[in-house]
Amino acid sequence: xxxxxxxxxxxxxxxxxDFIVHQPADHEDVYSYEYEDGPGPNTQNLAxxxxxxxxxxxxxxxxxxxLEELKKRTVEEEWPFRRSDGYYKAILxxxxxxxxxxxxxxxxxxxxxxxxxxxxxVEERLIxxxxxxxxxxxxxxxxxxxQVIELKKDGEDKDLPAWQWLQKLIQML
Length: 173
Hints:
Blueprint: H1 2-11, H2 27-35, H3 57-76, H4 85-105, H5 119-155, H6 160-172
């Protein structure tokens, strides 16, 4: 909850899918910070280096900035439960990994003809992947319901009609 709110405030995203439009850090800025005496991430406009994992100096610095902001919020908002820095850092790293996965999936891929996908082709691919995922979830749930009903029939459970009603409802969807 609170980490999601922090990411929403920082990157203007309400859900992970919104991160596909994130503009990654400029390669020259990242290189300058990591190998020279560059200034590092702009705290007013944070941008991850999405070509790399969370453990690079650039991305680690951004995660540290986010951690400090989170710690500041715990004090200012008087959270009833406070966790260790390590706990928050692990969650932030996991969220970066998920956001990076979403962003990378939305990047144009090389087509069979050797060119890059157009924006429409990327969108079509992402919609097809989402539809496949939803169908898989539906089929799994339908199969579980079927198995529960079979078990209920054997035991002549009193709640069998409720499970059968739920199965009909799922089939109508």
